[in-house]
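Re-run requested by the PI after the first attempt was lost when the workstation crashed. Everything re-entered from the original request form. Ligand of interest: S-adenosylmethionine.
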Amino acid sequence: MDEVRQNTQRIRDEADGDSLSWFETLYATANGDEYWIPWSDGAPHRFLVEWSFSIKSRGRALVVGCGLGEDAAYLSRQGWDVTAFDISSSAVQWAKENHPTEDIDWQTADLLSLPEHWKELFDLVVEVHILQAMPEPLRLLAAPNLAPLLTPTGHLVCIGRLNENEEDFEGPPWPLTRQFINSIGSDLNQVDFVKGNLSHDEPEVVRYRSVWKREN
Ligand SMILES: C[S@@+](CC[C@H](N)C(=O)[O-])C[C@H]1O[C@@H](n2cnc3c(N)ncnc32)[C@H](O)[C@@H]1O
């Protein structure tokens, strides 16, 4: 695992400091070997799966920063009409190849400048580990772009690491403070907030899931 961390760190160091371009380099140079993608475990996030049991309705879902597509494929199997995008075209192509039987609209796109016609289009928007992977100046620009994607009855689900004690972290990832998380859905109604961890987590890791609905 150390060599995976070292490889990721080297690619980041060689990239322009504030940019997100290193994601594409990481995926492109992995040559189809998931071993080199530190966040990929071949399964949908447990917090998303658990939340999905609580909702019976279906519709259009958007998976933000889909990586290798496990969350998108899970939602598709659950009956959602899924669009999934990532800033890395290599990730998108790889996700498509990993899930050839799912009818998913795979797109290369940047959360910082989304297609205008996506506004108010989605009944579900899912963000897993994207905002926490962006340096703060970009994160502050990106977070307000999520809520406007929802239909009037849509849900926004954000999952990531929680910075409970407002510590300084040398990211990525940069765990998110409760204040920042609340700001993501400031125009929405928060309907769920849970804290927890995953079985493989280091003891200090705290994770969160926050869910908002546009209308009650
Ligand atoms: C830590 S990975 C998480 C990937 C996936 N959601 C998962 O949980 O496995 C962060 C992902 O966000 C993507 N990403 C980063 N910035 C982005 C942006 N501005 N727009 C779209 N995707 C972005 C990266 O390419 C990468 O696939």
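Saved to the shared folder this time. Residues 20, 23, 39-40, 65-67, 86-88, 91, 110-112, 128-130, 133-134, 142 surround S-adenosylmethionine (CB under 6 Å).
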